[in-house]
Design brief:
single chain, alpha/beta, Cobalt-precorrin-4 Transmethylase, domain 1, Methyltransferase, Cobalt-precorrin-4 Transmethylase, Domain 2, Rossmann fold, 13 helices, 19 strands, 25% strand
Amino acid sequence: MKPKVYLIGVGMGDPGTLTLEAAEAIEDCVTLVGAPRLLAPYREGKTCSPLIASADIFAFLERQERGPVGVLLSGDVGFYSGAKSLWPLLEGYEVVTLPGISSLIYFCSKLKTPWQDAHIVSAHGRAANVAGEIQSHSKTFLLTGGKTKAQDVCRTLVEWGMDHVQVWVGEDLSYPEERIRSGRPSELAEETFGDLAVMLCVDPEPICRGISNGGIPDEDFIRGKVPMTKEEVRTISLAKLRLCPSHTLWDVGAGTGSVSVEGALSLPAGRVFAVEKDPEALELLEKNRDHFRVANLHIVPGEAPEVLSDLPAPDRLFVGGSSGGLEGILRAALEKSPALRVVVNAVTLETLAETVRCFELLELEDVDMVQLAVSRARPVGRYHMMSAQNPVWILSGRGKRRE
C-alpha cells in the first residue's frame, strides 16, 4: 500500500516561518525528505533522507511501506517549487499539499512594501534577460543563485547604464545570519552574495514595452551610409512577425539594426540575433544596441546562412537582406523550427521574384504579400510637396507544422 504523502511548503527554512498546519503535518510524519538545510531542524526524532531531485524523491517514496512521508519544499509549493514536477509523479498516492511563506512575501514584508505589483523573475539556475526585465517594470523581484548571483545582476545593471535603479538584496532570509542590503547597483556590485539571495529592484522610469512596439522615429537611430528599414515599413514588418514576449527572433541582414532594436524592445523575455556581414553596419548595430539599451539583442557577425547553424532555434525570422542567399537562409531556419513564421522585405523586382520562388519551393503556408508605397511631405518654399520613397514588398508566411 502506498504511503500518505505531504508536500509541505516550509517557508524560508527556519521553523518559525511554518504555518501551524505544516508544523502539525511534520509532527505526524514518520519520514522526512528534502534538501539538507530544510531537514536540519528535524534530524533528532525523525528519519530524514536528504533528496532534492523529483525523480529521486519519487523513487524513494516507491520503496516506502510506512507513512506518512513529508516532502519538505522551500518557500511556497506554488512558487518555483519542486511540487510542480512531483504532482504528476504522485498519481495514485494520497497527497496533501500545504502552502508555505514564499521568499517574495517574506522579503516584501521586511521591506514594508506590497508585492502584488511586482514583476517576478527567476534567474536561479536559468537564463534570464535581467536588464530587460528590470527596465521594463517599475518593480521586479528576482530569485538568484547558481551562475547568476545578486552581484552579477548588479554588474549587469551597471553595464547597461541602469545605476539609477534602487536595489534591495535579501540573503539567508529567516535564519539568524539574515542580511538585507540596499543601494544602487554600483554600490552592491562588488559585494559577495550567496545562493540563498533574492532581490527587489525598483526602476523609477521603466521603459514602456509592448508586443507591438513599432514607431520609433527614424531620426532616433544612429545612422550611416548603411541601408535602414524605415519607420512605416518597419512597423508593418514587425506587425507581420506577430511577436510574443518570449520569442527568439533572427534578423538576417540587420543593417543599421532598426528592426532588431524594435524587435528586442517588444521581447522583454525573449532574444534577438542580428546577423550582419558588413563591418560598417556591425559598428552601427552595436551603437544602436547600446543607445536603446537592449540587452537581449545579440550581434552575430558573418554571412548567412553559414553563421546560422550555431544560433538557437528561432520562433520568428526577418530577412532584410540576403545577398542572394535567401533559399539557404530559409532552409537553415526551417530546419531548426519547421513551423517558423517568416517575414521578408524586398526592394527590387529580382528579390521579390526570388522570395516568391523560395516560398513556393519550401511550401510555406498562410503566405501574404503587401506592397507599401510611402510618400513624405517636404517643404518647397511656403508650400509642401509629397516625395515618394521606393516601394517595398513585405512577404510573410509560415512553415508547415510537423504531425
